[in-house]
Structure formats: structure tokens, C-alpha cells
Design brief:
- A 5-stranded mixed beta sheet has the order 6-5-4-3-22, with no helix packed on it.
- The protein has one helix at about 145-150; strands at about 15, 20-25, 55-65, 65-75, 85-90, 100-105, 110-120, 135-140, 155-160, 170, 185-195, 200-210, 210-215, 225-230, 240-250, 255-265, 275-280, 285, 295, 305, 320-325, 340, 345-355, 355-365, 370-375, 390-395, 400-405, 410-415, 420-425, 440-445.
- The protein has 1 helix and 30 strands.
- By secondary structure, it is mostly beta strands.
- It has one domain: 5 Propeller (Tachylectin-2, Chain A), CATH 2.115.10.20.
- One of its GO terms (biological process) is sucrose catabolic process.
- Keywords: Glycosidase, Hydrolase.
- This is Sucrose-6-phosphate hydrolase.
- One of its GO terms (molecular function) is sucrose alpha-glucosidase activity.
């Protein structure tokens, strides 16, 4: 890891930087949440989790009329993975979430796998009007009947649209809009609007086995293949999934493009993880001068993350959220009413280290709403009055560690040892539900400035 801004993320954010710890206020759940009281054992208090049952990848993230829409892979009938639907929640501040009914459910074409959503502001699809342009969701149909029959063309891309600000969704009568060319893994479309030589076009990044395929469209309904990306040196420990393509400004003011690719398995500490590439995109082809794998996180609990579309230019942020779990143990995590949560939303940016560009992740500023009073400590033991905690570290030169312990003897240790940062959760509580969960996760060390 070549910069202080890359995060070793687990079920909390480690902000490298030790001077103060901030007690945080417990989140108030929106009154519209009726499925659960959000006070069950292990229930996160300021990470989004579904009211009940199974959740995995974040999907269809779009900002519209003052609200952040978060759709997600959801199985409403069990707390383990099953026939996928799109769950739905909205927030005005990325902290307090309002749970809504299932947005998109399976049909004869298949289950509803991961995808994205955009505001078709010019009504290029013709699915709305100039006065009421549609929100358009682009997702993968997973036809389990075809798959069970031994066919490999069981994944196609479909769309649905909303004319009431995302409350209800109508599937396009001409689905699928992108047929399967005879490839087993053909999924997770992330669509963004790109301007090339003053002309706007829609670009789809699609995970196709062990590569990312780029498609273009003028209307979201008809798609043309443009190019593929799969450099020889990238991480190929498992199937490629859930791509995202977006521009970021480099420190020198130049616009660069970042491509996120989730991979399972093959992460640096086992199981699921997300690699990224920094380069250029001309509307057809993504290129990079990068020659080594770079990981968005080195921890094991951030997967399939993508960014919100349509965030206003006046805001200027690229906002990301990921699934806070790992396919190595996601289905056996010891929660009962629900299973899984999302990471804290993050702002992504670029920084340079030497001659290379790296992606920085920082919790969004809205998280500060949860803070109460600040407490500064140095070299002493302190009792906490609140179960919720945010902290930052300013270690002196050399190795260091910090230990968090409760009355039950549960211990979490973070620190730096020789050339590696580490988080040790081997004795952090109920950890024996899956071999490998109770582990010490490490990340290459760096200049701790």
C-alpha cells in the first residue's frame, strides 16, 4: 500500500491519521421501518442493513430529486441467498434510511441480478417524456431454468423504468435488451453517460467471465460491443463481477478514469475483494499504464461496491458504497432476522505517490452528524461510555498497536508491525461460525504521515 489514504476496512473504518476518538450518537431509524426494531444482537447502528432477510450487492444507486436511492440484491423469503430481487431504500443524508417495498421482482426471464440505474434526462429511451424523463434500471436476468438445464446462455441484460421518481417500476416489454452471446458469466451492467467530442453516449461496463466488456448505446435499448479489458497482470483468482467506470480528477487537474472490478475469490486476505485500475477512456476503449494489482481495500468486508450516478455537479463527489461481507462466510454470519450490511458510504478521490495514481477512500462528511464530543488520549487506558466509536490514530515512528476490550474478554487489536498494518479479530467475539473469519488481516505498510 503506497499511501496513507488506502484503508484496511473491516466492520468499521480505520482512519489512519491517533489523536482523538469521537463518541457517536446512535442512529435513529426512519419511522417507516416496520419489519424490525433494529435492536437485535449484532445489528449495525449506522451501517445500512435490510429490515429482514438476505441482502448482498448494492445496485441501481442513483441520486434523484434530493434523495439517494439504494437498491440491493435481496431475497425476501430467507436470510440466506436465493432468487434475487431488488430491495430498495432511500436517504436524504446517506445516514438515515427509509425502507421501501421490493422494487423489481423475478419474472419468466429470470431472477433479478445486479445492475445500475440512471436518470435518462433527455428521454433518449423514449420510455418517458421530455417533461417527465424516466429513471432507468439496467440489470442482469439470471434464468435458473436454463442454467439447471445445462445451458450457458442463461444470463441476459434487461431494463425497467420508473415515471414516479423510483417508487414503482415497469419492465421494458422488449426485454432482454442485450442477449447472451454464449458465455456463462455475462452480468452486472454498470451504465454511465460519457461525453466524447461533445456528443453524449451511454456506456455499459459488463463483467464477462474474466474480462470487462464495454458496450455503447444512444438510447439504452440497443447496445453495440466496443472493446474488452483484461490485462495479463490483473488478479484472476476468481470470476470478475460488478464493474464500475467513472472519472476522477488527478492532483494535477487531469481527468482520469477509474475501473473497479470485484473478484471472488482471490482477495489479498482471502475471499472476495475489489481491485481497481486507473487509466483513460475514450468512449470505446479503457487503457492504463498501471502494471500491478491495486486493491480498494485489504480487509475482507467490502465487496461489489459501486458509485452513485447523477450526483449533482455542485456536489462534485464520487460516492461509493459496498457490501460489508465476504462470500467465504456471508451465509453463516450469526444473525437471525436479517443477514448482511453495507459499508459506510465513502468519497473516492485520486492521489499521487511517486509517479503513480492511487484511489483514496474516506467516509463521507455526512458521517460527522453521528459525532458527539471528542476525546483525546495518549498512552492511557480509557473506559468508553458508548458502544459506537469513531477514532483516528497518529502513531509515533515504529511499530504500534491499540487494543479494544470489553467485560467479556473480547478483544480487537489494530496496529503496525514491521512492514504491515494489521487488524486482529481472532478473539473479537463470536467468531467460530466459519473457519477463517477469526483471522489477522494485513496490508502493506506505508509512510504514516
Amino acid at each position: 500500500m503506497k499511501g496513507v489514504k488506502q484503508i484496511l476496512a473491516l466492520s468499521f473504518i480505520l482512519l489512519l491519521g491517533f489523536s482523538c476518538q469521537n463518541k457517536v450518537k446512535e442512529q435513529t431509524v426512519a419511522e417507516t421501518t416496520t419489519f424490525s426494531d433494529y435492536n437485535e444482537p449484532f445489528r449495525p447502528q449506522y451501517h445500512f442493513s435490510p429490515p429482514a432477510n438476505w441482502m448482498n450487492d448494492p445496485n441501481g444507486m442513483v441520486f434523484h430529486k434530493g434523495e439517494y436511492h439504494l437498491f440491493y440484491q435481496y431475497y425476501p423469503d430467507s436470510n440466506v441467498w436465493g432468487p434475487m430481487h431488488w430491495g430498495h431504500a432511500t436517504s436524504k443524508n446517506l445516514i438515515e434510511w427509509k425502507n421501501l417495498p421490493v422494487a423489481i421482482a423475478p419474472d419468466s426471464l429470470g431472477w433479478i441480478f445486479s445492475g445500475s440505474a440512471v436518470l435518462d434526462s433527455e428521454n433518449s429511451s423514449g420510455l418517458g417524456t421530455a417533461e417527465n424523463p424516466p429513471l432507468v434500471a439496467i440489470y442482469t436476468y439470471h434464468n435458473n431454468v436454463k442454467g439447471d438445464a445445462g445451458r450457458i446462455d442463461f444470463q441476459t441484460q434487461g431494463i425497467a423504468y420508473s415515471l414516479d421518481d423510483g417508487v414503482s417500476w415497469e419492465k421494458f416489454s422488449g426485454n432482454p435488451v442485450l442477449a447472451n452471446p454464449g458465455i456463462r458469466d455475462f452480468r452486472d451492467p454498470k451504465v454511465t453517460k460519457v461525453e466524447v467530442d461533445g456528443k453524449a453516449m451511454w456506456v455499459m461496463s459488463l463483467a464477462v467471465k474474466d474480462k470487462i466488456s464495454f458496450y455503447s448505446s444512444s438510447n439504452l435499448l440497443e447496445w453495440e460491443h466496443e472493446s474488452d479489458f483484461n490485462p495479463a497482470w490483473a488478479a484472476y483468482g476468481g470470476v470478475w463481477e460488478c464493474p464500475d467506470l467513472f472519472p476522477l480528477q488527478s492532483p494535477n487537474g487531469e481527468q482520469k478514469w477509474v475501473l473497479l472490478v470485484s473478484i471472488n475469490p482471490g482477495g489479498p486476505n482471502g475471499g472476495s475483494a475489489t481491485q481497481y485500475f486507473v487509466g483513460d477512456f475514450d468512449g470505446e476503449t479503457f487503457t492504463t499504464n498501471q502494471e500491478e494489482v491495486k486493491w480498494l481495500d485489504h480487509g475482507t468486508d467490502n465487496y461489489a461496491g459501486v458509485t452513485w450516478s447523477n450526483v449533482p455537479d455542485a456536489d462534485g463527489r464520487t460516492i461509493f458504497i459496498g457490501w460489508m461481507s465476504n462470500w467465504d462466510y456471508a451465509q453463516v454470519v450469526p444473525t437471525e432476522v436479517w443477514r448482511s450490511a453495507m459499508t459506510l458510504p465513502r468519497e473516492l478521490s485520486l492521489y499521487d505517490e511517486g509517479e503513480e495514481l492511487w484511489v483514496a477512500s474516506n467516509p463521507v462528511k455526512e458521517v460527522e452528524q453521528l459525532r458527539d464530543e471528542a476525546l483525546t488520549i495518549e498512552g492511557e487506558e480509557v473506559a468508553l461510555e458508548n458502544e459506537l466509536l469513531e477514532f483516528s490514530l497518529k502513531p509515533k515512528a515504529g511499530d504500534f498497536s491499540g487494543t479494544f476490550e470489553n467485560e467479556f474478554g473480547e478483544i480487537l487489536v489494530i496496529g503496525k508491525r514491521e512492514d504491515a498494518l494489521f487488524i486482529d479479530r481472532t478473539n473479537s467475539g463470536l467468531t467460530n461460525f466459519k473457519e477463517g473469519f477469526a483471522s489477522v488481516m494485513t496490508a502493506p505498510s506505508m509512510d504514516l504521515r
